[in-house]
Design a protein that fits this description.
2 copies of one chain form a homodimer. The first copy, chain A, is of the alpha/beta class and 199 residues long. Chain A contains 8 helices and 6 strands. In chain A, α1 packs across α2 (23-34).
Amino acid sequence: MEQQIAPLAHLAEQFGRLPGIGRKSAQRLAYAIVTMPESEAKAFADAILSAQRTVRRCSLCCDWTDQEICAVCRSAKRDASLLCVVEDPRDVAAIERTHEYHGLFHVLHGVISPLNGIGPEDLTVKELLARFEDAAVREVIMATNPTVEGEATAIYLSRLIKPLGVRVSRLAYGVPVGADLEYADEVTLARALEGRRDI
Amino acid sequence: MEQQIAPLAHLAEQFGRLPGIGRKSAQRLAYAIVTMPESEAKAFADAILSAQRTVRRCSLCCDWTDQEICAVCRSAKRDASLLCVVEDPRDVAAIERTHEYHGLFHVLHGVISPLNGIGPEDLTVKELLARFEDAAVREVIMATNPTVEGEATAIYLSRLIKPLGVRVSRLAYGVPVGADLEYADEVTLARALEGRRDI
């Protein structure tokens, strides 16, 4: 009978539309909202509206920002000769957490995937190419995911970018730090051998 | 730099307060909101506010409802002589999904847990005892979780209810259907042996 409580079922349905939230999780989250004080529920609803309204793509790198140009693109401390191309804004966050990269980013917002009907025109490729017009960029690091589609996208873009006289590199493949060789898949292990370095 | 987009970080923080949502999931969900059309984000925010405002405890069984009395308690088709006591509204939903139970429910909204400072006065025990006043109930099924606390709560309540001349039963313990005996824990297996039935 549970399912007949319309506002609760409706809220669970809304949660269920979010990525990675199944039916049970959606119901659990809806219950959590119901037990919240009104002020907290209101703060949550406001946060949703505010984020949806104010967050947009940076007009340079296409990462999310609440400004016209994002903080990374505006920063004078970043090396504008380096451009790291990623699929998703979350990848920017992941690379930023390494504290090892000081160049700029470009977010594709997806990956070329003919099977899903996603071509270069659905990504921010035009915006990426526009960034080479002032010729400050010397190297582009392709940091798309190490998947078939990520690989294909990296190759596609490198063919567009190399003729502009810009160096194009790709993230190193290899065994993840802390992993157990026994459980590494053969392709990764083969790539790790191939890419071995002197110590 | 990602983390500096205030509305996005704030929304992720809100998601992160929900049960079972870790830091990474919260961020993923916040990103999903940002990519939604405004109408969808608005529908989501409205669903939160509406559920929080309209859903309350049924004045009889304490399950969630958007009415004064919930659909189960109002139904003339339910057997009012049977009362199933559960910890959580989600347990009501789980039992309803079996389509095997036609009695009424009582939701405790928790379980006695001295370590967490939760006593009977924090649960809906008073409301439960009030339900025996009109003497329609013949049997109470204790369907609290098969945990130490669920067990202790069931025993505590049965000591209050039995003197009223009401039969008190407990869900059967045993091996879950479809499980592998090899992986069943000893306590469950011992209980399954103890509770064996003739075939």
